[in-house]
Design a protein that fits this description.
Order of helices and strands: HHHHHHHHHH
Shape: flat
Oligomer: single chain
Largest sheet: none
Distance between the termini: 65 Å
Number of strands: 0
Radius of gyration: 37 Å
Structural class: mainly alpha
Number of helices: 10
Length: about 325
C-alpha cells in the first residue's frame, strides 16, 4: 500500500469515527442549541487528517521531484561523457590519418623525384588539419632540411605560415597538448617555427618545445609559456613580453644559471625584467616554499633583492 493510499484511508476512518460520535451525541443532547463537543472532535479529526494527508502528498511529490532531478543530472552527465568520448574518438581518427600521411611522405623520400607531386599533395593535406597538423608539418620540414631538399622545406614552411596567418589575430589559440580538463599531457613540437608579426594574445604554449622559434614583432599579451622549452628564443624581439607568463624556474635561471646575455630573457630591458619578476612574484614564493633548493638559490639571486622580499614573506 502506497503512502498516499494509507493517508486517504486514515481520513476516511477519521470521518467515519467522527460521524459515529456525532450520532451518539445527538441521542444524548437532542434539543440542545449548544455545539456538541463531539462535533468539534470530528472537525479537529478531519483537519488533522487532511493536514497529515497534504503533508504526505507533498513529501511524495517532493521525493518524486528529487528523483527526477537526480535522473536529469545523471542523464546530463552521461551525455557530456558521451560527447567527450565522441570528441576523443574523432581526434584519435584525425591523428591516425595525419600519421598515415606523414609516414607516406617518409616512405616516398627514397624516390622523391618520382613522387614529387604526391609529396607536395601530402604536405598540402597536412595543412588542411590546421593547428593539429602543425607538429607533423614541422617534422616534415625538419626531415627534408636534414636531407638538404630545399623545395620541400620551403613548401612545408609555407604551409606552416598559412596556418598561423589564416587569422592574423589568433587570440587564445591553444598550441599545448591538453586533455579535457585543459591540463598539459605532452610536449608539442613547435621547434624553429616562424611566429613573426602575429597577435598571440592569451595563446597557450604550455609545455611546448619552442626551441629556435621566432617571435619577432609578435604580440604576447597574456600568452602562457609555463613549462615551455625556449632555447634559442629571443623574447626581446617580441611585443608586450612583460604581460606574458613563464615558469618561475626559467626566470630564476636567467639570474643565476646562465651567463649574462644568454637565454630567452637576454637583452630584455631592466624595466621589462622587473615587471616580469613582479608579475611572477607569487609563483616565486610558492615554488620557494615547496622547493628548498629553489628557495636557497632564489634568496641569493638578484631577483630576491629586486623584489625586495624578506624571509618572512616565504612563511
Amino acid at each position: 500500500m502506497s503512502q498516499e493510499q494509507a493517508l486517504r484511508e486514515a481520513i476516511v476512518a477519521a470521518i467515519r469515527d467522527g460521524l459515529r460520535e456525532v450520532k451518539d451525541g445527538e441521542k444524548t443532547s437532542a434539543g440542545s442549541k449548544q455545539v456538541d463537543p463531539k462535533f468539534t472532535t470530528l472537525v479537529v479529526s478531519i483537519i488533522t487528517a487532511m493536514i497529515a494527508f497534504l503533508g504526505g502528498v507533498y513529501q511524495v511529490n517532493r521525493s518524486a521531484d528529487v528523483r527526477q532531478e537526480e535522473l536529469i543530472q545523471q542523464n546530463q552527465f552521461q551525455s557530456e561523457r558521451d560527447v567527450r568520448a565522441q570528441k576523443d574518438l574523432l581526434e584519435l581518427e584525425r591523428q591516425k590519418l595525419m600519421q598515415t600521411i606523414f609516414l607516406d611522405i617518409l616512405q616516398k623520400a627514397d624516390d622523391e623525384k618520382e613522387y614529387q607531386d604526391v609529396i607536395r599533395a601530402n604536405i598540402g593535406a597536412l595543412r588542411v588539419f590546421e593547428r593539429s597538423g602543425l607538429p607533423y608539418l614541422i617534422m616534415v620540414r625538419d626531415f627534408w632540411k636534414k636531407k638538404g631538399r630545399g623545395q620541400f622545406v620551403d613548401y612545408a614552411d609555407r604551409a606552416i605560415r598559412e596556418i598561423l596567418l589564416s587569422r592574423m589575430k589568433i587570440s587564445e589559440m591553444v598550441f599545448s597538448q591538453v586533455d579535457h580538463r585543459n591540463e598539459p599531457t605532452g610536449r608539442a613540437n613547435l621547434r624553429r617555427v616562424d611566429f613573426s608579426s602575429i597577435d598571440f594574445t592569451n595563446a597557450d604554449f604550455r609545455n611546448c618545445d619552442l626551441d629556435g622559434a621566432s617571435f619577432r614583432n609578435t604580440v604576447l599579451t597574456g600568452a602562457d609559456f609555463t613549462g615551455a622549452s625556449l632555447e634559442g628564443v629571443a623574447l626581446h624581439e617580441a611585443l608586450d613580453v612583460a604581460a606574458a607568463r613563464f615558469s618561475a624556474a626559467d626566470l630564476l635561471e636567467y639570474y643565476i644559471g646562465v651567463p649574462k646575455g644568454i637565454g630567452p630573457f637576454a637583452n630584455l630591458s631592466e624595466d621589462i625584467l622587473l615587471k616580469l619578476l613582479q608579475a611572477h612574484k607569487k609563483a616565486f614564493i610558492e615554488k620557494a616554499s615547496d622547493d628548498p633548493d629553489f628557495e636557497e638559490k632564489f634568496m641569493q639571486s638578484k631577483a630576491w633583492s629586486d623584489l625586495q622580499l624578506k624571509p618572512a614573506d616565504l612563511q
